[in-house]
Amino acid sequence: MRPRCRKDTAVATRLPVMITALSRPTVSFPHHPYSESASCLRDALNYRGGLEKVIAGLLTRRADGWYALLVCEVAKPAPLAKTGQTVGVDVGIKSFATLSTGEPIDNPRYLEQAADHLARERRRLSRKRKGSQNRKKSCGKVALRHLRVQRARKHFHHEEAEKLVERFDRIAVEDLNIRGMVKNRRLAKAILDVAWGQFFEITKSKAENAGRTFERRDPRYTSQTCSNCGHRQKMPLAIRIYECEKCGFVCDRDHNAAINLDMVRPSGPKPDACGERRRSKKQERDGRTQSEPLRGGD
């Protein structure tokens, strides 16, 4: 029997998990009012031939139904063969990303595609009486539209991250302050739609499992610095083609930034020849002993 619950309310409970030894895998959550419903989840627990050890379980409800999420111990996959290739990834809004190889990745704009359907469902929702069953059903339809957009976006991120991990040994991306960027009310919706943070986390996880290197690098001046000679010049956002004033190098703005990301070193203090981090002038001054006079002193 399916539990009766509000569709517009998310229910998530951390519970112990029991796997029964049957011909078909069955899960049950002890001491939970919905254990009868959860015990009907079969076949979905068959992860690559079976579950060796289940650590924790999570029973959650989303707009389209109930889900049992299990945390399992599995063998670590073998690292992929080395390709000898590296890449810099410059993310954006017009194009989702541009690689240092010159390949652009189109922005699918899933939220923009679903905007008309979402607006229609929201207008229908606004006409429903508060507290009525029709309003609850309409809330579920709006939530389902948003869930489809979320899943399509996440699937796109997994596909693109898998392609990068298979082709390149080292992947360098921008270390962006996304929380600060969304404060721009004109670009906040577009920035949240592309979800750079989720893409970076997925790429990082896949790279670690495949034995690849994932690096976050300082994005400052990557669009203003010439990738050919290193000359820096001002580049307003409206200018999309980089034309170096010193060497005459011409390149797409995002492509030039991706090349710089692939060439520069990771952000942070640079180590010296002995592997220790260099000390600033203030640290050297504060670290002097009382017997050592300061420069210019008596």
Structural features, described:
The chain has helices at residues 35-38, 110-113, 115-126, 133-167, 178-181, 188-194, 196-209, 253-263, 281-286, and strands at residues 12-15, 18-20, 26-28, 53-62, 65-73, 86-91, 95-99, 104-106, 170-174, 213-217, 241-243, 250-252. It is an alpha+beta fold and 298 residues long. Among the domains are: 12-73, no CATH class; 86-217, no CATH class. Strands 8-7-6-9-10 form a 5-stranded mixed beta sheet, sandwiched between helices. Strand 4 and strand 5 (65-73) form a beta hairpin. Helix 3 (115-126) packs antiparallel against helix 4 (133-167) and helix 4 (133-167) crosses helix 7 (196-209).
Number of helices: 9
Chain oligomer state: single chain
The strand count comes to: 12
Low-confidence stretches: 1-26, 30-44, 266-280, 288-298
**What Rg do the Cα atoms give?**
26 Å
Keywords:
298 residues, alpha+beta, five-stranded mixed beta sheet, 33% helix
Provide a short characterization of the protein structure.
The protein is an alpha+beta fold and 298 residues long. It has helices at 35-38, 110-113, 115-126, 133-167, 178-181, 188-194, 196-209, 253-263, 281-286, and strands at 12-15, 18-20, 26-28, 53-62, 65-73, 86-91, 95-99, 104-106, 170-174, 213-217, 241-243, 250-252. A hairpin with a 2-residue loop joins strand 4 (53-62) and strand 5.
List the SSEs and their pairings.
Blueprint: E1 12-15, E2 18-20, E3 26-28, H1 35-38, E4 53-62, E5 65-73, E6 86-91, E7 95-99, E8 104-106, H2 110-113, H3 115-126, H4 133-167, E9 170-174, H5 178-181, H6 188-194, H7 196-209, E10 213-217, E11 241-243, E12 250-252, H8 253-263, H9 281-286
Parallel strand pairs: 6-9, 9-10
Antiparallel strand pairs: 1-4, 2-3, 4-5, 6-7, 7-8, 11-12
